[in-house]
Design brief:
There is one protein chain. By secondary structure, the chain is α/β, with parallel strands linked by helices. It is 39% helix and 20% strand. Strands 1, 4, 5, 6, 7, 8, 9, 12 and 13 form a nine-stranded mixed beta sheet that branches. The protein is globular.
Length: 418
């Protein structure tokens, strides 16, 4: 096919040969990327990932510090978007080299936009990690914050590059882009976009990946048509497709003109055309990777560095995120609540930081009060003999120690919200 399919091909009776971090890109960009890698291998030095200071004053001072950029500085703002639970925050954390954003198996773990900074050599990459794109009806139905409707759209406006993350292990959602993602892409056609097929390590039949790519790109990458052998879909796939169509009709009835969405500027005909196409034919490149694989993530990071343009850094090289240490703490505690508590319980919990001080030997003592909506919820959080709340405090404290690079003693208490 005209576009270059790197490290990912069909080979005789052996079927599909797949190398992690394979991507489909143009020949020109591939050559520039290879030259960049060669230059790095010759004379670059490894920079340890930055950390978040445990003191909010120190973090604020760091954010206000003048950028220590070189003469030939480059910069790139990357908005990472996708449907809820696609793996956006996991990918962001891996690119940063340190866990900053909360991650769990439940949807809507990220509740507001987060910013991370990767500074390597002469390049600064600003990662804009967004909540999963959702609809007004879902926000109302699940009693979510209204910021979930606004943050992702506002973030995209700032970006030099959009990265659309899709969970290919979710067989019900991997054959077509989320409609909210399509709307976002259609409203910003001037911003280059790349597709990241995430969690490819969980797909047993690697042969499916090219077919998924064809579906999500409408068979076009970087303006050129892909040539992918069609496959005969099993009966269940056809039935599922029909169910998806019915679901789309239901959504149209609930929100007939998209007028309930404050971010939508597309008319009826444009929305109808988007819903029928299911993919986006204007992706510049396509990556197939696992966001938990370091080698895969380095390949994507190299891509960002090659795509960066000459410009002034926005932050000092020691900045990792614009979040305060308290915001990071609240986010990590919430992650553990989502991980270990069932159904709606973690979504209804609120937090209040009661104590934040340095103890002996630089240990950071933190006390957080959790407020439960119901007495049954409170009992679930506490657990038998206090085991659940103790586990959440221990694991959250360990994560925070790695983020702040200081020993953290975290104490959690639970109270019924009146």
């Amino acid at each position: 096919m005209p576009t270059r399919n790197v490290a990912c091909r069909r080979e005789g009776r052996n079927g599909f040969i797949f190398t992690p971090a394979c991507f489909i890109t143009s020949e020109t960009f591939l050559n520039s990327l290879m030259k960049g890698n060669a230059a790095e291998a010759d004379g670059s030095f490894y920079r340890l990932p930055a950390s978040v200071p445990a003191d909010s004053g120190e973090q604020l001072s760091l954010l206000l510090r003048h950028p220590d950029q070189p003469d030939n500085s480059k910069v790139l703002k990357v908005a990472i978007i996708g449907s809820p639970n696609a793996g956006k925050s996991t990918l962001s954390n891996q690119l940063l080299g340190r866990k900053v954003f909360a991650v769990s198996k439940k949807v809507h773990t990220t509740r507001s936009r987060g910013m991370g900074v990767v500074t390597e050599d002469d390049t600064q990459i600003i990662l804009l990690d967004t909540p999963g794109l959702t609809t007004p009806s879902k926000v109302k139905r699940h009693q979510l914050e209204k910021s979930l409707l606004v943050d992702p759209w506002n973030t995209v406006k700032e970006a030099d590059l959009m990265v659309v993350v899709v969970d290919v292990a979710d067989r019900w959602r991997s054959s077509r882009l989320d409609f909210e993602v399509l709307k976002c892409l259609a409203q910003h056609p001037d911003i280059p976009a790349v597709l990241v097929l995430n969690k490819v390590d969980l797909v047993k039949a690697k042969d499916k990946l090219l077919n998924i790519t064809a579906d999500l790109t409408c068979g076009v990458v970087n303006g050129r048509r892909m040539q992918v052998r069609p496959v005969i879909k099993p009966p269940w796939a056809k039935k599922r497709s029909e169910m998806d169509s019915e679901l789309s009709v239901d959504e149209d009835i609930a929100e007939p003109e998209g007028s309930a969405d404050p971010n939508c500027v597309l008319n009826k005909e444009q929305l109808k055309a988007l819903r029928s196409q299911g993919g986006w034919p204007h992706f510049k490149d396509v990556f197939m990777l696992s966001s938990v694989n370091g080698e895969d993530v380095e390949t994507l990071k190299s891509y960002f560095k090659a795509a960066a343009k000459p410009g002034s850094w926005q932050y000092h090289s020691e900045v990792l995120t614009d979040q305060s240490p308290e915001e990071v703490c609240t986010s990590i505690v919430r992650e553990k609540l989502l991980e270990y508590l069932p159904q709606e319980v973690p979504y209804s919990m609120t937090q209040s930081i009661e104590l934040w001080q340095y103890g002996e030997n630089g240990v950071v003592d933190i006390s957080v009060k959790l407020y439960a909506q119901k007495e049954t919820h409170m009992k679930m959080v506490i657990g038998t003999a206090g085991q659940m709340v103790a586990r959440i405090a221990r694991e959250a404290g360990e994560d925070l120690s790695r983020i702040y690079l200081k020993e953290v003693k975290l104490k959690l208490s639970v109270k019924l919200r009146k």
